[in-house]
Amino acid sequence: MKRKNIIILLWISLATAIFFFVFFTGDKTFYNFLLSLIISCMYSFLIGAGNGMINDFLNKRLPWSEATTKRAVISIISILIINSILVYFCNYINFVVFQKNATPEEFFAGKYNFINWFMINIALLISAFLHAKGFMEELKKSSRKEVVEQKLIAKSANAQFESLKNQLDPHFLFNSLNVLSSLIDENPAQAQKFTASMSKIYRYVLEQKDKELVTVEDEIEFAKTYCDLLKTRFEDSVDFEFNVKKEEYKKFVVPLSLQLLLENCIKHNFATSSRPLLIKVFSENDILCIENNLQVREQMKESAGIGLANIVQRYSLLTKRNVFIEKSTDYFKVKLPVLSAKPNVVSTAIHQEDKSYEKAHKRVKEIKSFYANLTSYCIIIPCLAIINVITSPHDLWFYFPMLGWGIGIAAHGMSVFGIGKNWEEKKIREILEKENNRYGK
């Protein structure tokens, strides 16, 4: 047990001992005060430590974030059993061993049933508060972790994207300059055209530097210019076919995705005049497809797959629709989702962070409201019960506010912790997944 928890239990024991000593002890002697303190410590440490151990054990074996409903059910069953055992044990030691107000036979015969029942309810309320507090702490950790993960994903995707754009400069420039140097003497007109195409490519890269999405039309025009350079470089060893529907032109894709995929086709496949590489770019059902016949090039080292992984990651930050990859013995195809609307966000990282923070803030606010209600119940109901027992022990009216308020708290807890809404959330997720799969195929 942590030192902080021990200090809290000691203060609770001292406060409880003083209360019972002042209001319920006839002989105000040091011995009676010491006895009250010992009894209070017994109740506080046994019940408090027992519930704390249960909570810690369940947190390790069955965290709230992994199985909320299952954890709630197991917590309720365990605190009912453990608190009943601990309360009966403490009451037996108190009334039979310390105060000697009853024999063991009288205690188990039912003489102290009301006191046992009352103490069990108090213990259950305190235990429920502790478990709810543990749930809130777990929720806060999960919310912070989700925000951090979204920020890391966004930063990683942006960093890789910048790296890929920078890689375009040395590799592509080196190969293009070699082609240009040979064209200057052989075909000056073609060299001039080649230089103009190169300038268009680098202008496009600079223009799309800070954009999350571009129109299909812009990306296709850029890809055609890029393919012209590749065609000049490889001549009849590479052929390109573009068959994208005009209605798709005003929709959106992530920038430079076609360039990366076209570069992958050239990089991972060999191309000769006798066995040319055919690369097709076409559209089907809100999807932009890039397909090539498979002529795998033998490589000295395995590719890291950074380009394709970056495209998948950037799409995951903007939409729930997936990038699909098909591979057979004859062809390799990548399917890019075409988005009909451009997300109204300034930055993906900020959007994801704000969304996660807003969700976490709303959730914590709901739980804090439940805790305030539960805390008030734990304080007021015992006070009403004590006043009732002192003023009119034969007319136990405190049952009515205890039961009525208790039912209200139970309903509040079910709404906050989503016990009654799981089927709705599952159904919504199923419908969304079906829609995403339908559009993704």
From TrEMBL:
Signal peptide: none annotated. It holds the Pfam family 2TM. Residues 159-237 form the Signal transduction histidine kinase internal region domain. The keyword Membrane applies. Residues 358-432 form the 2TM domain. The chain crosses the membrane at residues 7-24, 30-51, 72-94, 114-135, 370-390, 396-419. Keywords: Membrane, Transmembrane, Transmembrane helix. SUPFAM superfamilies: MFS general substrate transporter (SSF103473). This is 2TM domain-containing protein.
